[in-house]
Design brief:
mainly alpha
Length: about 110
């Protein structure tokens, strides 16, 4: 995960919106939905990220949630929501050294 976040920082020239879009695209790629649904979700997410109109974002979030609720992987779902809805930066997904050590010992956490 840390390597992918570092890659995003290097390739997005500091654009938070672009980093968020690329990371969410990465999550969408591995969701258990059809290819057509992935395309629709990708388009909705892009509209949401680049919209500055609050009522439009509310409508888009309801449409996005329909697809997001199909996701069974809780960690991916939480990451998706944190980046898209709660404006947490992609950097918030990186692990500290103690967290990486713990994940090495207990990979099922």
């Amino acid at each position: 995960m840390n390597n992918y976040v570092d890659y995003l920082k290097e390739t997005c020239n500091g654009s938070e919106k672009l980093m968020s879009l690329k990371y969410i695209s990465y999550l969408i790629r591995y969701m258990d939905i059809t290819y057509q649904e992935k395309k629709i979700l990708q388009d909705l997410v892009e509209q949401y990220i680049y919209s500055n109109i609050e009522h439009e974002k509310n409508k888009l979030s309801k449409l996005i949630d329909v697809y997001l609720n199909k996701e069974e992987d809780k960690k991916s779902k939480i990451s998706f929501q944190n980046i898209l809805y709660y404006n947490k930066g992609v950097e918030s997904l990186t692990y500290t050294e103690p967290q990486l050590f713990t994940l090495t010992i207990f990979p099922f956490l």
